[in-house]
Every structure is written in C-alpha cells, then in structure tokens.
Amino acid sequence: MKKLFPFLLLAFVFSLAGTSFSGCSKSKSGASAGNAGTASLENEPEVTFKDLQGNNVQLASFKGKVVLLNFWATWCEPCRTEIPWMIEFQQKYASKGFTMLGVAMDDDGKSVVDPFIHKTQFDVNGHPTTMDYPIVLGTDDIASKLGGLIGLPTSVVISRDGKIVKRYIGLVNHETIDKEIQSLL
Amino acid sequence: LIRAMRSRFVFALCAVFLILAAASLVFVKNSPASPQDGLPNASAVVKPRAYVSLDPVPRGGQFQVAVVVDIARGFHMNSHKPSDVYLIPTTLTPQLPAGIQLVETIYPEGRSEKFLFSPDKPLNVYTGSVTLRMRLSADANVALGATSLPVTLRYQACNDAACLPPVRVPVQVSLHIAASGAKSHLVHPEVFSTSPANK
Known about the structure:
A: two-stranded antiparallel ribbon, B: four-stranded antiparallel sheet
C-alpha cells in the first residue's frame, strides 16, 4: 500500500487537473459561443451614433435603461440568428426600462441597412416581424470606444447607470442573454 | 489474502484515475475553439498563393493565373455566388498592366453547407482549399520582360458562431513576357490540370 501511495497521489492530481481544465473549457463554450468578457471594459463610454435619418444618438441618452447594444451587419448570418431574439427582448422588456440598440457595421451604411431592416422579415415566435427596435450606424471608432470589435455579432450589455457589464463575442445563447437582461431590470 | 485484495483494489483505483485524467486531457485538446479564443484577424484567415500557367508568356498568346486559397480550419467564406443577396461574394480583381487583357475569371462552385447558426438554411461557401482562376491574353505589343500583375482577393469569412469583416487581400503575380513564338513551358500542372478552368 505504501509503495502504491505516490502512484495513487500522482494519478489523483492528474485526474483533478484534467477535469478542472475541461471544466474551464466547458464553461467558455457552453454558452453556445456566447462568450462573456468583462476584462478591459471602458465604463460609461461617451459615444455618439448616427441614426438612419442622420440624427445624432448619444449612448448617454439611454441612461436609466438597461441597453443591449448589438453590433451586426446585413452580411452576417449568425447576426440574423440573433435578430429574432433581439426583437423579442425589445417586445418583452421595453416597458420595464430596457432597450435594444442595433449598431449596423455595414461599410455601405444606410443604403444597404435601410432596405434590410424594412424588408427582411424575421420569425419571432411564429410571427413575421421586421427589426422594430432602434438601429444606428456604427464605425470602427465607435466600436473601439466600446471595447473593440473582432467579429460579428458582438453584444454589449449596459446597466441602467450606463456601465458596460458584459460583452459577448459571437452568437449569443438566447437564455443566457435573457437571464442577463432580467438580472439588470 | 486481504492484503493482496487491497493491493489489487488500489491498483484498479489508480488505473481508473489515470484513464479519467487521460480522457479529460484528450477532451480539452479536442474541444472546439470558442469564437473569442479563435477569432483571428480577417486577413489572416486565408493564405492565397498565385501561379502562372506559362513560363515565359509569349506575346499574342493566352495564359492563366490561378490563385489557390487555403482557408483556415473551422472557417468558411462565401462562394462567388452566395445563397443570399446580402452576403458578400468572394471575388478576384486584377489590376491589368498595359497590354494584358482579362478574358474571364473562373470561380469554382461553392459547397452547400449548414452551420450551427444556420441549421435549416444551407449556405453556399468555400472551405478548405479552393482555386480561383483567370484566363488572360497578352497583346502582340505588350512590354517584354518581367511584369507584375497585382490581384485583389476580396472575401468575407465566418466560423460556426461569428463573422469577420470583409477584407481585400493583395496577391502579387509575377510573370515574364517573351517574344511571340518564343519557347514556353506549361508550369504548375498540379494546379492547372485539376481546376475547372482546364476542363
């Protein structure tokens, strides 16, 4: 038994290391690519967007509301998977002090974004619906103020006091983000 | 007897631990990279290589340029004819020097594939390695000697959960123009004999 003890201890340590590593890995990808990040976030960023009519929209004007800021583009297929969820969140939580804010990152701006949001129908719980939440045009400068953009979709959750509380890169899991919104309302 | 049984039990326990540990490590190694971990710069997702079919290219003759595009594992880019009007097609655009004409650009057909984000709607994409080709002609009076033919590859790539912005990647093509009727060799048959342009 004594001879076997070091062997047993080694095996136990290996086993523990292996399972804890795999646990980390699971928790990262478990949100079905909804990778949450909280590091190096700039709190209360001063950002001014242009809406599709050319008006200035300040991010600060949403203070007091929980904001789900979603960077997307018309050419981004994973973004289209999320859009029906975003429409649903807007419908479900707008009356409780929440707003979606879609930030379109198309290089061609309004000329492609405007027809897309008015013509493309998304299936929201069986109902064909267009993107009826606020849409603004994004730029690389704006994206960098909000933590940078390495891929689309990217979603940024902003609390009522204007602070960035979470950031998701890639396709977000519906339940994860729904819980995140609920926790802030 | 009891001591022997205890030893066997401990040995079996050790074996189970070791198997579990090995399995965990293998699982970690083979776990798909999450988009945040695995998102490279958009221009690093493909590695284009250019080939010219003839060396040298005689004045007054036709030749081909192939751009072999190796797409990083786990990524795809839209084909030249994507399945949706909003998707950005892959294109090859040459900046033709004086005396060189583009006859046609030949894009391979994409593959219809479903993805995690689009389980019901297949997308027409390129994955792995694809060869895009241009058929060109050299005028009878084109300048002799070494010639540069800059080409721009435009694409937009995604993995299973996220998309990278569309990019334009420069591809440099070098060729040598010789006199009309000069002896010329077919080169890179491994590229030009297998792609659709030769069929």
